[in-house]
TrEMBL record:
<feature type="binding site">
    <location>
        <position position="157"/>
    </location>
    <ligand>
        <name>Zn(2+) 1</name>
    </ligand>
</feature>
<feature type="binding site">
    <location>
        <position position="194"/>
    </location>
    <ligand>
        <name>Zn(2+) 1</name>
    </ligand>
</feature>
<comment type="similarity">
    <text>Belongs to the cyclic nucleotide phosphodiesterase family. PDE7 subfamily.</text>
</comment>
<feature type="binding site">
    <location>
        <position position="194"/>
    </location>
    <ligand>
        <name>AMP</name>
    </ligand>
</feature>
<dbReference type="InterPro" id="IPR002073">
    <property type="entry name" value="PDEase_catalytic_dom"/>
</dbReference>
<feature type="binding site">
    <location>
        <position position="194"/>
    </location>
    <ligand>
        <name>Zn(2+) 2</name>
    </ligand>
</feature>
<comment type="pathway">
    <text>Purine metabolism; 3',5'-cyclic AMP degradation; AMP from 3',5'-cyclic AMP: step 1/1.</text>
</comment>
<dbReference type="InterPro" id="IPR023088">
    <property type="entry name" value="PDEase"/>
</dbReference>
<feature type="active site" description="Proton donor">
    <location>
        <position position="153"/>
    </location>
</feature>
<dbReference type="InterPro" id="IPR023174">
    <property type="entry name" value="PDEase_CS"/>
</dbReference>
<feature type="binding site">
    <location>
        <position position="303"/>
    </location>
    <ligand>
        <name>AMP</name>
    </ligand>
</feature>
<feature type="binding site">
    <location>
        <position position="354"/>
    </location>
    <ligand>
        <name>AMP</name>
    </ligand>
</feature>
<keyword id="KW-0479">Metal-binding</keyword>
<feature type="binding site">
    <location>
        <position position="193"/>
    </location>
    <ligand>
        <name>Zn(2+) 1</name>
    </ligand>
</feature>
<dbReference type="InterPro" id="IPR036971">
    <property type="entry name" value="PDEase_catalytic_dom_sf"/>
</dbReference>
<feature type="binding site">
    <location>
        <begin position="153"/>
        <end position="157"/>
    </location>
    <ligand>
        <name>AMP</name>
    </ligand>
</feature>
<dbReference type="GO" id="GO:0004115">
    <property type="term" value="F:3',5'-cyclic-AMP phosphodiesterase activity"/>
</dbReference>
Length: 419
């Protein structure tokens, strides 16, 4: 595990496990901490134990404290919870769907439960002749490979994006034109778009010389990893193995193109193209390429739609994403690295971060989406929440009043990992 230049190879992921389990930043941080790299020894067994423990934590319901400890009441309560969850699913297409509640009612299985339900709604299992056992295995792997210890980039965020994606796929302008393959890929990309997210952003991976940064040459590092992990799980589960090879390969490529579109540093590129299409009124959804572009846009919207939700949900997401930034800032402070933009809890307040995010990232995209939908009822609802939430953060910032100057450059925002 030691390289000649004194760094500990983080290639354990490739050696011991599939690459998709390999993005634990703390392992790399240990290298920075130790004064003499050679004094720091990992043997393969230690790494293996560490990773399998993570997996154990993920899977253990009791450890997560979600199941009552009295064995007698367990099943009754479970049934009651699942009954309520089933009731919620009957309203899965409504914009005020409370994904946090749904996640509690399903014992932390919101992503798997939601995806199975939506696949049934669209008849995708029948259409693609999917094997239910393989589908469950695939979805379980995706859900488990999200890090539940991340305040923001966890399986609940994935479920939330999937639910938003479903709402967008139902938009009248889009719904009638979409093929079963479009719907399948849209939902799959939403569910897997942040899988195995390490809870830190790309600049952090680059400056700590994480193996993923060099593997993907410092470009769309996280998004590439989310995609390649998804492909790994698709192949491991055999979900698409019954399809003709060129068809499953094409699906893998399209999933990649969708997931890579969530890279927030490519925001302008997509926004300009979208705006141009709307100005020229030349979107032709009979064309597969135009439908694919709209799926990319829909996924991007779903990924950053938190400020368009009702305040109570929106506020929770804001606090979670900022908590994740602050944790990165704390790690950077601890290891004497420069603290990344938006990651300094003392300087960057939640209201300030949110106002910048809304003004420079969310509003410009949703204004175009609003135009695309004609505007639809949902779009009007979302814009209403967006403006109200922004005003509310402004009031809170004013009340906070602890900082005179806000970071407000798009540049700062696009460097961070909101998506
Ligand atoms: Zn995301």
């Amino acid at each position: 595990f030691h390289l000649a230049d004194g760094r500990v190879s983080t290639g354990h992921a490739g050696v011991l496990l599939a690459e998709r389990r390999g993005s634990y930043p703390l392992i790399d941080l240990c290298i920075l901490k130790s004064k003499s790299p050679l004094s720091f020894k990992y043997n393969s067994r230690k790494v293996k134990r560490l990773l399998s423990f993570q997996r154990y934590c993920h899977n253990s319901r009791l450890l997560r404290g979600l199941v009552p400890h009295t064995p007698g009441s367990l099943h009754l309560l479970d049934d009651d919870y699942l009954g309520q969850a089933a009731h919620m699913l009957s309203k899965v297409g409504t914009w005020n769907f409370d994904i946090f509640l749904f996640d509690r009612l399903t014992n932390g299985n919101s992503l798997v439960t939601l995806m199975c339900h939506l696949f049934n709604v669209y008849g995708l299992i029948h259409h693609f002749q999917l094997d239910m056992v393989k589908l469950h295995r695939f979805l379980g792997m995706v859900q488990d490979d999200y890090h539940s210890q991340n305040p923001y980039h966890n399986a609940v965020h994935a479920a939330d994006v999937t639910q938003a994606m479903y709402c967008y796929l139902k938009e009248p302008k889009l719904a009638e034109q979409l093929s079963p393959a479009d719907v399948f890929l849209g939902l799959m990309a939403a569910a897997a778009h942040d899988v195995d997210h390490p809870g830190v952003n790309q600049p952090f991976l680059i400056k700590t010389r994480h193996h993923l940064a060099s593997l993907y040459q410092n470009t769309s590092v996280l998004e590439s990893h989310h995609w390649r992990s998804t492909v790994g799980m698709l192949r491991e589960s055999g979900l698409l193995s019954h399809l003709p090879p060129d068809m499953s390969q094409d699906m893998e490529q399209q999933l990649g193109s969708l997931i890579l579109a969530t890279d927030i540093s490519r925001q302008n590129e997509f926004l300009l193209t979208f705006r141009e299409h709307l100005d020229n009124q030349d979107l032709d959804l009979q064309l597969a390429s135009h439908r694919h572009f709209m799926l990319q846009i829909a996924l991007k919207c779903a990924d950053i739609c938190n400020p368009c939700r009702v305040w109570e949900l929106s506020r929770q997401w804001s606090e979670r994403v900022c908590e994740e930034f602050y944790r990165q800032g704390d790690m950077e402070r601890k290891f004497d690295l420069e603290i990344s933009p938006l990651c300094n809890q003392q300087a960057d307040s939640v209201p300030t971060i949110q106002i910048g995010f809304i003004s420079y990232i969310v509003e410009p995209l949703f204004e175009e989406w609003h135009r695309f939908t004609d505007p639809s009822l949902l779009s009007q609802t979302m814009m209403g929440h967006l403006h109200k939430n922004k005003a509310r953060w402004s009031l809170l910032r004013y009340a906070h009043n602890s900082e005179p100057q806000a970071h407000s450059q798009t540049e700062l925002l696009t460097q961070s990992s909101f998506s």
